[in-house]
Design brief:
The complex is a heterodimer of chains A (202) and B (246).
Chain A: H1 3-27, E1 35-39, E2 45-52, E3 56-62, E4 65-71, E5 80-86, E6 90-91, H2 95-102, E7 114-126, E8 129-138, E9 141-156, E10 162-173, E11 188-201
Antiparallel strand pairs in A: 1-4, 1-11, 2-3, 2-11, 3-6, 4-5, 5-7, 7-8, 8-9, 9-10, 10-11
Chain B: H1 2-21, H2 31-48, H3 53-71, H4 76-79, H5 82-108, H6 111-131, H7 135-157, H8 164-171, H9 173-186, H10 190-196, H11 198-204, H12 216-242
Helix pairs in contact in B: 1-2, 1-7, 1-8, 2-3, 2-8, 2-9, 3-5, 3-9, 5-8, 5-9, 5-11, 6-7, 6-8, 6-9, 6-11, 6-12, 11-12
The chains are: A alpha+beta (202), B mainly alpha (246).
Chain lengths: 202, 246
């Protein structure tokens, strides 16, 4: 082996090392890879508000919520949200009214045990706000809804798990989903305001 | 003529339900949509019903099965399961039995009284539904009740114009399907539906009720009072325990 070939081999190894370091550094970008989260049912709320005869509002909530979302901070458009709400879990604090809500006049829980919200596109609006276009499946009807999702925080919770969360609020017309019971003027409101607060863990 | 009368009845009922609930799809998405298709099947039965007794019974059984499938289609995952088999069989037998009773009664009694009994069964089903959690099902039952009531008056005014066999499925099996819907969709005690069948029981034992006159109006009035009295009391007890609908 000549001195020339020895120096050439050293240079080659050096170049390979440098190149591999650059590639490794580039692959660890400022954005983490897409993270899949599972909705934490104990810290997820779907609250609704509806006008009652024009006098005031009645509030209710769904207590059985599950789902998952994939969050890609590098490319938000590749993120997705999927939420499932068990309609049987509707609760307004009055059992007889809840039974009526579960029946064919409203949620028809025997035929449609789940409400599903499946995102179609997500666009960043800045400052942790995202515009979400999602398909809402309720009462046998599928409709697209658009709403703002405010991403509040991602990070480790006190138990060391990666956790994220945020909230959204939007309105739907119940008659669009086949719930026409007492939907005339001065009766039970057609607009249902939905407020969603979600936490999810990795 | 018979087929046309059955079609008018089915289309009238379907249009009424559509106006009330605002949607009808196939396969049906809920109990009310299922009842619309069942009414059309009733008209189809009138068109294809065989003349022989055995054949008619067989076809009737197949039609009741088809109606049951349509009624429970939207909840088929839970309805067609072992815990429900007993009640499915019970409602199948109730539908066939009531259909048979009404068909026989139509040949021995005034059509006005037979139609009035069907109307009463639908009326009390409507009241029960509204107390047990569904105004829309109640409205659909009211729709049938009004139709049968109007037909009852028509049968009195034009006794020869109305063909009894054109309307029998609407008087018998359609109300029973509504009752089955009440049980499977609203969890109403199935025995309540047996109570609602009291008007049909009166049709069954009509020959034994010799004190009831044969005159159309008097017969209708007497049987209506005998059916409405106990059923009214029954609905009152339900109201006392459940209170009004929210």
């Amino acid at each position: 082996m000549t001195l020339h070939s020895h120096v050439g081999g050293y240079m080659l190894r050096r170049m390979l090392f440098t190149t591999s370091m650059i590639v490794a550094l580039l692959s660890v970008s400022a954005y983490p890879a897409p993270v899949q989260y599972k909705v934490d049912p104990a810290h997820a709320s779907v609250v609704f508000k509806i006008n009652h005869l024009g006098f005031s509002y009645v509030y209710g909530l769904f207590t059985d919520i599950s789902g998952r979302f994939v969050w890609d901070e590098k490319s938000v458009g590749k993120s997705s949200i999927f939420i499932v709400v068990k309609t049987e879990s509707v609760n307004t604090g009055v059992p007889k009214r809840d039974d009526h809500l579960r029946g064919p006049d409203f949620l028809n829980v025997k035929a449609f045990p789940e409400i599903r919200l499946t995102s179609k596109s997500i666009r960043s609006l800045g400052n942790g706000n995202y515009e979400v276009v999602a398909q809402l499946d309720m009462n046998g009807v599928s409709k697209d809804v658009t709403f703002n999702f405010h991403h509040m925080k991602s990070g480790k919770d006190p138990w060391g798990k990666m956790r994220t969360g945020g909230e959204a609020a939007f309105k739907v017309k119940r008659t669009d989903f086949g719930m026409k019971y007492m939907s005339g003027p001065g009766e039970i409101g057609d607009d249902v305001e939905l407020m969603i607060g979600l936490e999810a863990v990795k | 003529m018979r087929i046309w009368q059955a079609l008018v009845m089915a289309i009238g009922f379907s249009a009424g339900v559509y106006l009330l609930i605002g949607r009808v799809s196939l396969p049906p998405r809920d109990v009310n949509e299922g009842l619309v298709w069942i009414s059309l099947i009733c008209a189809f039965f009138v068109a294809v019903s065989p003349q022989t007794v055995g054949g008619r019974y067989l076809v009737r059984g197949l039609f009741v099965l088809a109606m049951g499938v349509l009624l429970l289609w939207s909840i088929r995952q839970t309805a067609f399961t072992p815990p429900h088999y007993r009640n499915l069989i019970a409602f199948f037998c109730l539908a066939l039995g009531v259909w048979s009773i009404v068909e026989r009664a139509a040949t021995r009694m005034t059509l006005m009284a037979v139609l009035a009994m069907g109307s009463l069964a639908a009326t009390f089903a409507s009241l029960l539904f509204v107390l047990k959690g569904s105004a829309s099902m109640s409205q659909v039952a009211t729709c049938l009740s009004v139709q049968l009531g109007a037909l009852s008056l028509l049968a009195f005014v034009f006794p020869r114009r109305l063909d009894a066999f054109a309307v029998l499925p609407f008087v018998s099996v359609l109300p029973v399907m509504m009752m089955a819907g009440g049980h499977f969709y609203l969890n109403i005690n199935p025995w309540y539906m047996v109570y609602l069948s009291l008007p049909y029981l009166l049709l069954w034992i009509r020959r034994g009720l010799s004190f009831v006159p044969d005159h159309p109006i008097l017969e209708t009035l007497a049987l209506s009072i005998m059916a409405a009295g106990p059923l009214g009391y029954f609905i009152w007890t339900v109201y006392e325990s459940t209170g009004p609908l929210y």
